[in-house]
Specification:
With about 750 residues, the protein is α+β, with helices and mostly antiparallel strands. About 30% of the residues lie in helices and about 25% in strands. The chain contains 20 helices and 31 strands. Helix 3 packs parallel to helix 5 (about 145-165), helix 12 packs parallel to helix 13 (about 430-440) and helix 16 packs parallel to helix 20.
Length: about 750
């Protein structure tokens, strides 16, 4: 496979052929808290390590004599560069892309770079030196890239300062390249490993000059990923793999009705079983602790628990729809351009002379995160201290939850970070599995306990993607021009539950994204949203509202353009500003997807565009529909402009992963509620798409450069569902206005 690279400073297209280990002990690390150094732009990071502290750590680390240059970089005598990564690795490749940023400015050899996960305890002790451990919203690379680049640049200059001091020459006469500092005039050179000890004592530079994109030799290239070898040979440690001496195992059952709690249960019924150690209850669960998980799980299934449903057992799909319907009528303004109601009334009055009015309702259901690794956490509680091993998207939140559960200071909690077997938002804002594990371990003091949820518990006790109802109206004038568009939306608010301070006068603009910020230029736009209060726990889900709102927006726009007699691509281009990133990425996707070209008999196309998390994405789907509405996907083209590409291979993989994720959810996934509880329980009623159903995927990257670093883990998802629904409409004339498409009998062939 040949990859052609062009500097991201100008628009370039990258298209695929369609297709720790433990760091030193925290006790040692906590002794070397560094002084903060001022950075250009006001960013303050703790870099400096006093020489005495460096001496204490000289024999620690993965290789003898490793020395910290700053909080992010440790260099060994044989020139190995160990990079600390604060963000979580859940398959998206952040644990490689961030070291790439550092290595780019450090000017070391990529083959000499290693990574390990940074310690949240060290982060706390050193005045939050790593800025944040939260990984979500496609921010893993884009919000840390500048910090990592500056860390690499600072270390490079400190190494040059050490060489300058050793040789008695101006630092300006020195160059850094491939892990060496060289003085051209005297033909002297020294490796980073030879200079590391002296470099750690140098003053942190207050000003740094970073490389421009055209100078990059690592960023934007396809680089080997650090996490893949261990994941390929089975040696990677996920939360579910944690093993500790003397460890016990816990299985639990939670109240099947949301918000309920246990009233009574009879522990004596299982305590006499082999291997059963204890039965523990919490505010929302009952757990059995045993010498292996299978015994604990079989015992907890046998427990007779009387639950207090707290009057919430009457909720069902029909009542949820009714609440959303009521919300539509109470939706509050988010955006108001022109006068939609006047335009609608005028068009309705003159419809017999050529003006057209259109209206349609769209609906998206609750969805489960379905991480392949069920929720789990291992905890060891000893007195007022605890150690926690958690597959978490936010180690700081894990620490806070454990401390809150025990009622102790944050410093009393030590958090260990294994790999995550899927996150998608489930393991970030809500740390219920951590709370439960610590509560259970507290009842078995001095013994590590691993809590592992069954798949059924994981399915029925998620923080789901919210259900949403969309009522839209539009006006097309007699010339075929879209002049007015109204969208009224009702859904639950994530911010209301997680960050209520982010609401603006009681309005959740995040819940209406893709509508209140739509890029289409027309005279009259009216966007409204209602926060619906429903007794179903909701949380951030991959691409959040961008996973559902673009479906309603882009499909309704297709309906309008069809009514106006316009081609979906040409019609959108008329509404998009010349030179905008939306327009550019849509044009690239159309070209790469052969939009409007000659297709094989029976094949049809659909497209859509949407921005999210600083990136712009467009999708073209080519498909055919056979007997019994079986859909064969021939090719899916997704073009993404993230501003800059970090790791070329990881970026392509993110596009491909988003396609697979979207196809499963749009055709098969739905969470139903009956009697206050979730109906689905496992793969038999919440299936995943199969490998044979995977289409040819054409992943296209169009980085336009500039100062923008957009996300890659979620933006590609946004246009896929509407593009596919629009293609089905082109093939069959049937407008799909809700997901999953199986509700209308459509299946993946």
């Amino acid at each position: 496979m040949t990859h052609h690279h062009k500097p991201p400073a100008s628009t370039a297209i990258y298209a695929t052929p369609p297709v720790n280990a433990a760091r030193r002990s925290f006790l040692q690390r906590s002794l070397v808290a560094g002084a903060a150094a001022p950075w250009a732009g006001g960013l303050s990071l703790g870099f400096y390590l006093p020489p005495a502290a460096a001496d204490k750590l000289a024999t620690d680390g993965p290789r003898s004599g490793a020395v910290d240059i700053n909080a992010w970089i440790r260099i060994t005598p044989d020139n190995q560069v160990v990079c600390e990564v604060a963000r979580a690795e859940m398959g998206q490749g952040t644990s490689t892309s961030l070291p790439m940023m550092l290595a780019e400015e450090l000017e070391c050899r990529w083959e000499d770079v290693r990574m390990e996960f940074a310690s949240v305890n060290e982060h706390l002790a050193r005045n939050k030196v790593y800025v944040t451990f939260a990984t979500g919203g496609s921010r893993g690379t884009r919000d840390s890239q500048l910090v990592m680049r500056k860390a690499g640049a600072a270390a490079r200059e400190m190494l040059k300062a050490a060489a300058s001091q050793r040789w008695g020459v101006p630092a300006a006469d020195l160059s850094a390249r491939l892990g060496e500092i060289s003085h051209l005039l005297s033909k002297r050179s020294a490796t980073y490993g030879e200079l590391a000890q002296a470099a750690s004592a140098q003053k942190v530079p207050s000003e740094l000059v970073l490389k421009s994109p055209e100078q990059w030799t690592i960023i934007g290239k396809p680089m080997r990923r650090f996490d893949l070898p261990a994941k390929s040979d089975g040696s990677a440690i996920y939360g579910i793999d944690v093993r500790l001496p003397g460890m016990l195992y816990a299985a639990l059952v939670q109240c099947p009705v949301f918000g309920g709690s246990p009233q009574t249960f009879d522990a004596s019924a299982v305590l006499n079983r082999r291997g059963i150690k204890k039965v523990v209850s919490g505010p929302d669960f009952v757990a059995v602790v045993a010498d292996n998980w299978w015994r604990a799980q079989q015992a907890v299934k046998s427990l007779k628990v009387a639950w207090d449903y707290k009057g919430a057992e009457s909720l069902n799909d029909a009542s949820i729809r009714s609440i959303l319907e009521s919300g539509i009528g109470e939706a509050r303004p988010m955006r108001s351009d022109g006068d939609f109601e006047a335009a609608w009334a005028a068009a309705a009055a003159t419809s017999d002379t050529g003006d057209k009015t259109l209206e349609a309702d769209y609906f998206t259901p609750y969805l489960n995160h379905f991480t392949l690794e069920p929720q789990n956490c291992t905890a060891l509680v000893t007195g007022e201290h605890a150690e926690v091993w958690a597959p978490t998207q936010n180690a700081e939140a894990t620490m806070a939850e454990a401390a809150k559960t025990l009622g102790v200071a944050l410093q009393n909690i030590t958090v260990h970070r294994p790999f995550l077997g899927g996150g998608f938002g489930r393991r970030g804002g809500f740390q219920d599995y951590v709370r439960q594990a610590v509560q259970i371990a507290k009842d078995v003091p001095g013994t590590p306990v691993k809590l592992l949820w069954s798949r059924e518990e994981d399915m029925q006790h998620d923080f789901y993607r919210p259900a949403a109802l969309y009522r839209q109206r539009a006006v097309v004038d007699r010339a075929g021009k879209l002049t007015a568009w109204q969208a009224r939306i009702a859904s639950q608010s994530l911010l209301e539950k997680i960050r209520p301070s982010a609401l603006q006068n009681g309005r959740d603009f995040q819940a209406a994204e893709a509508f209140h910020d739509m890029p289409y230029q027309l005279a009259h736009i009216d966007v409204r949203h209602a926060i619906s209060h429903i007794n179903v726990p909701v949380g951030f889900w991959r691409s959040v509202y961008h996973s559902q709102n673009p479906f309603a927006r882009e499909c309704f726009l297709d309906e309008v353009l069809t009514a106006a007699g316009k081609d979906p691509l040409a019609g959108r281009l008329e509404l998009l500003t010349q030179g905008s990133r939306d327009r550019k990425v849509l044009e690239v996707a159309a070209k790469e997807g052969n939009w409007g070209g000659k297709l094989a008999a029976g094949r049809f196309q659909g497209l859509a565009v949407q921005d999210a998390y600083g990136s712009f994405a467009a999708c073209v789907v080519e498909l055919s529909v056979g007997e019994k509405r079986a859909v064969t996907l021939h090719r899916i083209t997704v073009a993404v402009d993230p501003g800059h590409v970090a790791n070329l291979d990881s970026a392509r993989a993110q596009i491909e992963g988003n396609v697979i994720f979207a196809l499963t959810t749009m055709f098969m996934s739905e969470i139903n509620v009956q009697d206050g509880r979730v109906v689905q329980s496992n793969l038999q009623d919440y299936p995943l798409m199969q490998l044979r159903q995977t289409p040819r995927i054409n992943a296209v990257l169009v980085p336009t450069g500039g100062d923008v670093w957009g996300g890659m883990g979620e933006p590609p998802y946004a246009p896929i569902t509407p593009a596919l629904a629009n293609a089905i409409a082109a093939a069959t004339g049937i407008r799909l206005r809700r997901t999953p498409f199986s509700q209308e009998g459509f299946t993946l062939a």
